[in-house]
Automatic annotation (TrEMBL):
This is Putative restriction endonuclease domain-containing protein. InterPro entries: Nuclease_put_TT1808, Restrct_endonuc-II-like, Uma2. Transmembrane segments: none annotated. Residues 12-176 form the Putative restriction endonuclease domain. The lineage of its organism: Bacteria, Pseudomonadati, Planctomycetota, Planctomycetia, Planctomycetales.
Length: 194
């Protein structure tokens, strides 16, 4: 009886792969984030809303799910890709690099829950984000148009429903919107008609 030994990949292996930018790297194994078409649409909408806010004063970069972060102190070989992320210009002297991984943690990480996401995988990703001390994490649930907000200082997340206010906390102090504004209007209308 033979036992197959699975090769542990490194971040450098990921960079060398032709399609390496499509994956995360967890415990030396490739993980392809499961993003539905709806989740991609929502990620684009949230990035649009955040970009509109930061464009007023230009104090941050809003990034799509293509950015790979290698910023996890407990596992320097771990690579994650939030669905949307924000990098404050005040915490980094220059714009993001053209190639490779972002080695600094984002200031905001947004994850949109897809129907195919496994609960354990979401919990592990959230634990990684918290270990990296990402100051603000939004876990977005499209099914009921809610957001779980994790702030660096809080032990428990804040649960926000469609008519609640969501803010940027200490990261984006002037950002304040209704949760409904983080979802495309047609989704909000459809939800309200249920």
């Amino acid at each position: 009886m033979s036992t197959a030994i699975q090769q542990r990949l490194t971040p450098e292996d990921l960079l060398d792969m032709q399609d390496g930018d499509q994956y995360e790297l967890v415990d030396g194994q490739l993980v392809e984030p499961a993003m539905s078409t709806e989740s991609g649409w929502l990620a684009s909408w949230i990035a649009f809303v955040l970009t509109g806010h930061v464009a007023e004063n230009g104090h941050a970069w809003v990034c799509s799910e293509t950015v790979q972060y290698r910023c996890f102190p407990d596992d320097p070989n771990r690579v994650r890709k939030p669905d949307v992320s924000v990098l404050l210009k005040s915490t980094r002297p220059q714009r993001p690099d053209r190639e490779g991984f972002c080695l600094e943690r984002p200031d905001i990480a947004v994850e949109i829950i897809s129907p195919s996401d496994a609960l354990l995988a979401i919990k592990e990703k959230l634990a990684d984000y918290r270990a990296a001390k990402i100051p603000l994490i939004w876990l977005v649930h499209p099914d009921d148009l809610t957001i779980w907000v994790y702030r660096d200082a809080a032990k428990e997340p804040q649960y926000l429903e469609i008519d609640d206010q969501v803010d940027g906390g200490s990261v984006l102090p002037n950002f304040q919107k209704k949760v409904a504004e983080l979802f495309p209007p047609e989704l909000v209308q459809e939800f309200r008609l249920k």
